[in-house]
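Bit of a strange request maybe. I'm writing a small parser for structure token strings and I need a real example to test against, not something I typed by hand. Could someone generate the tokens for this chain?
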Amino acid sequence: MSPKRLFTGDRIFVMVCSLCTSIGLVVVAGLSFASYAFANSITIMVPWIARFEGYVDVDGSPAVTISGSWSAVMATTAIVASSLLLVALSSERSSHSRDRRV
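Reply from user aminoacidic:
Good idea to test on real output. This should exercise your parser:
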């Protein structure tokens, strides 16, 4: 593949969509853990990424505290994005090879 065709418009679109999808997946997972810890007053630990501490406040209302590492969250997002990108680009290549055979 020549360097001119490495970053075509559709490939850049796939890269951006993979990044946005991975950000969405990580955010939804984090919000799901936080809501589960909040509702059940339990502690959920995701190793090296975050800790969701659910508890009942002194007034009797449920609460949650979230602590974690932003760099680990960004690394997780990058790993998910790169895997989505590889799957998307490999399926794109196989669909182009099928089109050429016809």
